[in-house]
Amino acid sequence: MLFFTQCFGAVLDLIHLRFQHYKAKRVFSAAGQLVCVVNPTHSLKYAPTRCAAAQTSTEQGILPPCHHHEAVHDPQLVPCTCPLFSCPWEGHLEVVVSHLRQTHHINILQGAEIVFLATDMHLPAPTDWIIMHSCLGHQFLLVLRKQEKYEGHPQFFATMMLIGTPTQADNFTYRLELNRNQRRLKWEATPRSVLECVDSVISDGDCLVLNTSLAQLFSDNGSLAIGIAITTSKVHNAEAEI
Amino acid sequence: MLFFTQCFGAVLDLIHLRFQHYKAKRVFSAAGQLVCVVNPTHSLKYAPTRCAAAQTSTEQGILPPCHHHEAVHDPQLVPCTCPLFSCPWEGHLEVVVSHLRQTHHINILQGAEIVFLATDMHLPAPTDWIIMHSCLGHQFLLVLRKQEKYEGHPQFFATMMLIGTPTQADNFTYRLELNRNQRRLKWEATPRSVLECVDSVISDGDCLVLNTSLAQLFSDNGSLAIGIAITTSKVHNAEAEI
């Protein structure tokens, strides 16, 4: 009996996911776009950000207690780029992708243009929606975060980071697009490297920022569809030609 | 001597304006775009918004003391659409443009695509930058407002309104574009009619919203260049064809 109940639950989940998939397809009707349903990662406690904690530790000449490496810091060693504050992992750039997949079960998608469908936008801050995106021979990390920068006023911040160096990141441009009810909002920028901290990108506001009211205008039944496209940067191509 | 000092001041102002004009031209390099330098209108006191005041008055069965019309309200009579709170003027839609030009000295520009260059972005909230834009046989009002929706956290709100009815407004799409330092932000929407209140559009957040940090990223030496384009709405064209 329990087996049949579980089976029925799984079928219901599949129908729900399929429904959300078609909803996003309807919004982003361009052929060939992959729609990925992303469920939230709800961090129970943010406390000081990892950047602030790392800076304080460096200023005091000590390393954070959760870090297990030697005192001489290798610049290629990056703290875990998953925004879960509690993750103590550090590693070389080359193994960040496998860490994110294996430890945090973050999906990786292929294709130059995908649709990121974040569910349960109503959940209280802080909440993150994360996905990895593989294209043009590199892996990118999309982070959508709901955070209260000003107490009582949650906002949504979306940014894309390259799992690579800042020099590599300069070769790309990413675009995030919201499109609903005859309104369209597009953000284009050069991705930051994961060697820079996602927390500082968000606190600097150098990303797509949405007030709750604007997020609600673009949401459909509690889900926000963000179209993502990555291209090689034209400026760098032109410079390379010269 | 005083005459020569004033002449020198005027020449300096002209050089400064010319320099800002070329700066904006450099950012929006598309040929044929008209660049308009817009100086701020600093409202000393906002107090309750006109909408709120009007609503309260209606609820209490009285009219605001500054309004000189009869108790029977004509829906075609609009309060002054200039966001200066203290303006007591009301009039028919047909004379809104001449009121804005003559009483508030708001410039009117021609052309489907123009660049709105708002100066002195550092001024404290509340501050407005306003211009009228004439194209496709209609007049539009662009309002950029710096306002503290949350105390101590000023934000910038930009919206475009048609000096016409809501039905007429539905036939158009406006686009606001910020472009600087390899970052681009675009907002596209249907303009609202000036018969709706500009204050409520901004409080609903149904417009382009910029945090101070994002506004600084797009500003150049305290000025913000916004590219504006107006087109006839494709949806309505398609419906008309059917």
Kindly report the greatest chain-chain contact and the residue count on each side.
A-B, 24 and 25 residues
β-strand number of chain A: 14
In total, how many domains does the architecture of chain A comprise? 1
Task: Kindly report the CATH topology of chain A.
Answer: Apoptosis, Tumor Necrosis Factor Receptor Associated Protein 2, Chain A
Q: What's the tally of helices of chain A? A: 7
- By CATH reckoning, the class of chain A would read Mainly Beta
By CATH, the architecture of chain A is named Sandwich
Oligomer type: homodimer
Approximate strand percentage of chain A: 35-45%
Helix content of chain A: 25-40%
Rg over CA atoms of chain A: 19 Å
Shape field of chain A: globular
Largest sheet of chain A: 7 strands, mixed
**CATH-level-4 superfamily name of chain A:** Apoptosis, Tumor Necrosis Factor Receptor Associated Protein 2, Chain A
* Broad structural category of chain A: alpha+beta
Descriptive notes:
Chain A has 7 helices and 14 strands. In chain A, the strands form 3 sheets. In chain A, strands 2, 5, 7, 8, 9, 12 and 13 form a 7-stranded mixed β-sheet that branches. In chain A, strands 1-6-14-10-11 form a 5-stranded mixed β-sheet. The first copy, chain A, has one domain: Apoptosis, Tumor Necrosis Factor Receptor Associated Protein 2, Chain A (Sandwich), CATH 2.60.210.10. Chain A has 242 residues and is an alpha+beta fold. The N and C termini of chain A lie far apart (71 Å). β11 of chain A pairs antiparallel with β11 of chain B.
